[in-house]
UniProtKB/TrEMBL annotation:
Name the record gives this protein: SAM-dependent methyltransferase
Keyword set, alphabetical order: Methyltransferase, Transferase
Pathway of action: Phospholipid metabolism; Lipid metabolism
InterPro entries assigned: Methyltranfer_dom, SAM-dependent_MTases_sf
Residues annotated as domain Methyltransferase: 46-154
């Protein structure tokens, strides 16, 4: 049992192979309701170009397009298995050149400055090895007045501790710690939303 939990934990952070594909499919289905709840906190109609960091199985990329047919959406993930799954999920949109997916890590993404109107990170920031540096790079590629949205399962210390028992996380930050870091990096209009499940939190800030 412990070996299975370890394998699942590693694949949640870095999906790989058959097990990784299974987890990505499960995430596309299991996380969709809370993802749509978080997306509802953003006005997508005034956005033109979006970046989803840690795009996983690619479901949120198609969610964005479904909610605003005029969007161009980029997705990056450090896992090649995730990139392959995201490409498969969004094949038609990629063929139409409305979606672009690449194998990149947040700490080495190579986009030009001030490219995106919205940047999102769904259940991924606690896997970043350096959250501060990641947020600095997010700010670099975000347009002035662009928005940065974080969705995490871990709205309380108890929830984070429970989550970390099964998932190997790099950084466990609470809402006020995210807020303080965002303020230090000169993000503004920081809003924190807590889901009724008392586990999921959405944080939206503006450059």
């Amino acid at each position: 049992m412990m070996k299975i939990i370890k394998i699942l934990s590693q694949n949640a952070k870095y999906p790989k192979g058959i097990i990784g594909n299974f987890i990505l499919s499960a995430m596309n289905l299991g996380h969709n309701k809370t993802a749509l709840w978080a997306i509802s906190k953003i006005n997508l109609q005034d956005k033109k170009i979006v970046l989803d960091i840690g795009c996983g199985g690619g479901k949120n990329i198609s969610n964005f397009i479904n909610l605003n047919k005029n969007l161009i959406v980029f997705g990056i993930d450090c896992s090649k298995t995730s990139v392959e799954k995201s490409i498969k999920t969004n094949k038609n949109l990629i063929d139409e050149k409305r979606v672009f997916i690449s194998n990149q890590d947040v700490l080495s993404m190579d986009f030009e400055d001030e490219k995106f109107d919205l940047i999102t990170a769904f259940n991924t920031t606690y896997f970043w090895s350096d959250i501060k540096r990641g947020f600095e790079l997010v700010r670099r590629v975000l347009k002035p007045n662009g928005e940065f949205m974080i969705l995490n399962d871990g709205g309380s210390k108890q929830a984070l501790e429970k989550y970390s028992k099964t998932i190997n996380v790099e950084n466990m930050l609470l809402c006020d710690e995210y807020e303080n870091l965002l303020k230090k990096l000169h993000f503004k209009n920081i809003k924190i939303y807590k889901h009724k499940n008392e586990r999921t939190v959405c944080i939206v800030s503006t450059k």
